[in-house]
Amino acid sequence: MILSHSKDRDVLGRPVVTKTYTIGGKNITFESGRLGLFASGAAVITDEDGNFLLTTTGIWGEKDGDFFPLTVEFQEKYYAAGKIWGNRFMKREGRPSENAILTSRMIDRPIRPMFPKGTRTEIQIISTIMSSSGVWDFGFYGITGASLSLLLAGIREFEWPVSWVRIVADVAWNFIFDPNFEALQNAHLDLTVAGTADAITMVESQGKEVSNDLMVRAFAYAHSIVKELCDAQKDFVSLFQRSYEFPLASLVIHENESWLIGKIGTLLTEAEMQGLYWLGKIEFHDVVASLYERVKTHLMTEWMDGTLDDPTWTWESISRTESNFPYSDGAISESLKENIKHHMRETVLSTKTRLDGRRTDEVRPVRATAPILARTHGSALFERGVTQVLSVTTLGGPSDIQIIDDMYEEDTKRYIHHYNFTPFSVWEVKPIRGVGRREVWHGRLAEKALEPVLPDETEFPYMIRVVSETTTCNGSSSMASVCGSTLSLMDAWVPIRKMVAGVALGMIYESPDRYEVIADIQAQEDFLGDMDFKVARTRDGITALQMDCKIAGLSIEVIERVFATSVSATEYILSEMEKCLSEPRKELSPYAPFLLAVQVPEEKMREVIGKWGETIQGIEKNFSVEVDLADDGKCTVTAKTQEAWQKAIEFIKNIIKDVEIGDIYEGKIIKILDTVGAIVEIGKGKEGMIHISKFGLSQRIANVNEVAKVGDTVKVKVYSIDKEKGRIGLEKIG
Length: 734
Fold this sequence. Notes:
This protein is an alpha+beta fold. The protein has 5 domains: 2-243, Ribosomal Protein S5, domain 2 (2-Layer Sandwich), CATH 3.30.230; 258-351, no CATH class; 366-578, GHMP Kinase, N-terminal domain (Ribosomal Protein S5, domain 2); 594-656, Ribosomal Protein S8, Chain: A, domain 1 (2-Layer Sandwich); 664-732, CATH 2.40.50.140. The chain has 15 helices and 30 strands. The strands form 6 sheets. The protein has an 8-stranded antiparallel β-sheet with strand order 9-8-10-11-22-21-19-20, sandwiched between helices. Strands 1-2-3-4-5-7-6 form a 7-stranded mixed β-sheet. It has a 5-stranded mixed β-sheet with strand order 12-13-14-18-17. Helix 1 (98-111) crosses helix 2, helix 2 packs parallel to helix 4 and helix 5 (258-267) packs across helix 8 (329-351). The model is unreliable at 1-6 (pLDDT under 50).
């Protein structure tokens, strides 16, 4: 539905093209021609709430390498939300936030498969939030903006418009498109879906144990809006062409050496192909390397002898020397891999047998050990095949809670999951240069998987950090981190509601009528297959998922089959995990901090704090604890030993407790009144007097100094209270 259509002029006198569409019940405006005049393609997306997203495409020349040089950057500008970032010394935005990193990756993943294989033209997409309402995460329009800017750049090889939508489902399973932050917090399901008008290409979600059927319904609803956004893009491009001569950008595409692929295929025997099966990751690569050397030697020999019959070359004019051998190492290697890939895929489709001999629905052997580290608060080693992930849980107090201060919000995180991927885990040697996008992405996915089963803060007030160390990887380390972290949390006494297991599923896809879903993919299958679909679930439903496609996308029917396969796979994994730990441990690690919270009444908060904070500081110093008093009166004590924790808690309870007749205290004499009595401190700010007659002696004494001195610790009982005069009468007992 067209709501408006206006034409302004830019500084060069050219028209600014604008059009507003109704998408999913919301008014979304596309614009081009005002900003980014030197970009190959530029698109602005705005809404009625003041959100403004600029996305540009830059096209450069051919870049050396054997990969598609596409880079995506998502930028959060703090001025967009009326905020100044930084500290006293630095006000410029620094490294991207975790949200920006994840959004960049989410834009990249659905866009990349839309380009022809072999593209070598350097392309950069920059998506920038320039105005934000502060109540919507407008960044998810980044994929739509990227797709639109690519189309406006005139890239003919970019196959179809791509869009991305975010929806939530409430408890009653009403779907909400483009939810605000309040809706996200209360969501039963948070789902993002990217795709074309015909298929779904990428998915990410977090849910509270969502069933397969409900998840499929959500997919279908989200994809219906994806279609609307894709149609709007095509319409806008058509409108843009009426005002501008449409640019035509040509990409450099390295086509597969079809002749070379065929030639190498004739050199490989069936026995050699079968020799690639039933091998581990390292042995597989060793055999491939040996095949490469044999094939290259054979091709080189035929070349030198003049018997290599390549119809694409005129051989007579070429001097046949080793130095001008026409086929690069990369071309030979890629052609060999294409033959291996074809054989593997055909074997799976025809016989349902995989490289390691497993059935398509079979999970690798699973082993779990917990604990594995002696001094940590909780630890577990999860192994699936040769993939190993060591997950470690650390518990902390309120002072350890992570503060989130990004463009959208200021908040805290009580639970964080960090994922590390080391070079040695995949038999590589390379420098470690901080945390990459992959680590951030996998860590956040595992975090989403476990958040729905964590105990409420009132039940378990600890700050929780889990770190998953990938020590050996042959595929699906991210889902192994979900399994290992579940066991690690249980080993650390965290009372999670249910166990969560994760599995990565792949696919060999030839046509809608000929494809196979494969469970628990290993590294070779990830490379040779068409899909990576990660699913984390309890026995009662899905808690998180993430899907990438190397093909144009998946239909709802195919996705239903993937979900069905994930149920049996995760059931097997859960049953194996339960052999290690079936429920959280009943005792806290002796190396974990002791933590307990008490509620301080509003009228007592000043007493607990003390003048200039002296009371809290005194408690921390005297008992070697940390005390955190929140604005709502929640007072949390964190201690290294149970003894220190108990003493500090008792001290605080004495401060906030009203003195009543019959209460018994252990106090310290702070003043002697010679012939009258002794003043005793029974709590911070609370004093009472033992009258000279109340020392529990059989005969009267003339002077208190005969039986007591300043500094003595005495056990006393309250026998009288004069509220008007603020006097408390004590008698010594014991």
